[in-house]
Every structure is written in structure tokens, then in C-alpha cells.
Design a protein that fits this description.
With 236 residues, the chain is mainly alpha-helical. The chain has two domains: 99 residues, Helix Hairpins (Orthogonal Bundle), CATH 1.10.287.1490; 119 residues. Helix content is 75%, strand content 4%. It is elongated, with a radius of gyration of 36 Å.
């Protein structure tokens, strides 16, 4: 089992180095970060304006439908006005007509207001879009320059991936799965070196019986942090 633990330690080292390379590749240089922030803010603002236009259009459709209903209702009341037989019915009919006319006016005003708001938002959106092509070009150029500068890091990362894969291919499936499970759950440290008879990660002292198991090449877990323990071989 000692050979497997040695390989696990090597695998963890490679994966840690790979993680550093990936972190470096993900870190935006200041020159690109500035224009990327501007680009993302512009996209966010255009999305917000587009969403506003969509919401206004949705509300207008609802108002237009209600307006049509009220206009039909007004026609109905006006028709009924010709059929009233006494003053009381006449007054009641006019009351319905006045209330409906008032509602129609409110709906028409609402439509005009939403049209005005829509036109203003569309104007802002058009202005944003007019300058977006240049911003997109500057963003793409800066992004391409950044990605081009990552050539060496990419090669290093790819080499580390290949070396890690080669080691994984030599490990028993159960051990490989156990390693990755602990690696994910324990802040990317699945294997902890034993230093001065203690786990170097959590400082828990390793009992003598476990130290003997380690020396025999058995798989041993830290009783404190439950990571796989690794003791570097000493030269004889």
C-alpha cells in the first residue's frame, strides 16, 4: 500500500500545482479587468432596459385589452340610454356612462404614459447599442491579448493534467475515488504529511500504533482531520 500512498502524495502535489496554474489563468490582468467591467456593466444595463421594455409592452397589452372591453361596455350603456322609460333609469344609465368614460380616459392616459416611457427607454437602449460595437471590439481585442499571454501557463497546466492522469491510471479505483472525495471535502488536501509524529495539517498527534501501521505501509487516516497520512521515507 505504501507505493499507492506515495502516488497519492504525488497526485496531490500535481493537482495543487494545477490549481495554482488555473488560478493564475483565471486572474484578469488590470488592463483587461477595466474594460471587462465596462463591458459587463453595459450588457447589464442593456438587459435591464430590454426587460423594462418587455414589461411595459406586457402591461400595455393588458391595458389595451381592458380598454377595448370598456369601450364596448360604453357602447352598450349608450345604447341602453335610448331605451330608458323614466327619469330614474335615465339618471342611472348616465351614471354608468360617466363612470365608464372616466375609466376609459384613465386607461387611455395610461396607454399614452406607457408609450412615452417606452419611447424614452428605447432611445436609451438605441444609444447604448450604437456604441456597443466599439466596446465589443475593444473588449474582444483585450481578451484575445490576455488569452495569448497565457500560452506558457496553458502548456504547464496541460502537462500537469497528463501527469496526474497517468498516476490516476495506476491507482486502484477504490483508492482513487477515496482520494478525490477527501480532496473535495478537505480544502484540496487529501493527503497530509506526518511531521514529528503529528499530522502536519491539523497538528493531531499520531498514536504509536498508527505510526507502526504507517511504517508497515498500511493506509492510515488522521484521527483529527480524517485525511490520509503520509510519511516520507527516510534514506537509510
Amino acid at each position: 500500500m505504501s507505493v499507492d500512498v506515495d502516488k497519492l502524495w504525488e497526485l496531490q502535489t500535481l493537482m495543487s500545482q494545477l490549481g495554482e496554474r488555473e488560478k493564475q489563468m483565471a486572474m484578469k490582468p488590470e488592463a483587461f479587468a477595466v474594460i471587462d467591467d465596462e463591458y459587463q456593466a453595459a450588457n447589464t444595463e442593456m438587459t435591464r432596459l430590454s426587460d423594462q421594455l418587455e414589461q411595459i409592452a406586457k402591461e400595455r397589452r393588458k391595458v389595451d385589452g381592458e380598454l377595448m372591453d370598456q369601450q364596448e361596455l360604453l357602447k352598450k350603456y349608450q345604447g341602453q340610454l335610448m331605451q330608458v322609460k323614466n327619469q330614474q333609469q335615465y339618471a342611472a344609465a348616465w351614471k354608468e356612462i360617466d363612470a365608464t368614460r372616466k375609466h376609459v380616459k384613465e386607461l387611455e392616459d395610461s396607454t399614452l404614459k406607457s408609450m412615452s416611457e417606452s419611447d424614452e427607454i428605447q432611445k436609451q437602449l438605441d444609444e447604448r447599442k450604437a456604441g456597443h460595437g466599439d466596446l465589443q471590439a475593444r473588449h474582444d481585442k483585450a481578451h484575445a491579448e490576455w488569452q495569448s499571454s497565457l500560452g506558457d501557463l496553458r502548456k504547464e497546466a496541460e502537462d500537469l493534467r497528463k501527469r496526474a492522469s497517468a498516476i490516476e491510471a495506476q491507482l486502484p479505483e477504490r483508492l482513487k475515488n477515496e482520494f478525490h472525495k477527501i480532496f473535495r471535502q478537505r480544502q484540496n488536501i487529501a493527503v497530509s504529511r506526518v511531521l514529528n509524529d503529528s499530522c502536519s495539517t491539523c497538528r493531531t498527534r499520531v498514536r504509536p500504533a498508527l505510526m507502526q501501521q504507517l511504517k508497515r505501509g498500511e493506509l492510515v487516516y488522521c484521527e483529527g482531520c480524517h485525511r490520509i497520512l503520509y510519511q516520507e521515507k527516510t534514506s537509510s
